[in-house]
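Team,

Forwarding the record for the chain on the shared tracking sheet. I've put the sequence and predicted structure together so nobody has to dig through attachments.
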Amino acid sequence: MTTKNDEIERLFRNCYVSSLHLAVRLIHDAETARDIVHDVFASLLSVDRSDISEAYLSRAVRNSCLNYLRDLSARDRLHNLYMLEEDECDSDDWPDEETFRLIAASMDLLPSDQCRRVVEMRYRLGMKYREIAEAAGISEVAVYRHLRHALDILRQTLRE
């Protein structure tokens, strides 16, 4: 007969990697995800259940991640999204020539000169958000919003 600690150890060996992948997909921060998964396993030691399953563990990790995200301030969420945008945009193989031609033809659809200028600084000149904000005399949040709005318009145009 196995003890509760043996069962949790078996669960840890079998499910730690998949639990960590789930947390990283939800949080987008490996260190925080690792902390959350470790906290979930630590909390299993104090649970009065003997039937802890992989499904229970997955729900516990998901709920802990969602609680973490809920508790983040709006500023932190915006910062995390900004960092994701930075990571997505640093690809060397994008845009290819055909995509670049389509984007250039679609630039007239953007709502303002400032929006077009921000897009050009980011993608043609390869400037960072902070550099664009300083050059255009606007905040980094405004740069982010201009780019997000422009990308939504350009994606819709390219889909059509």
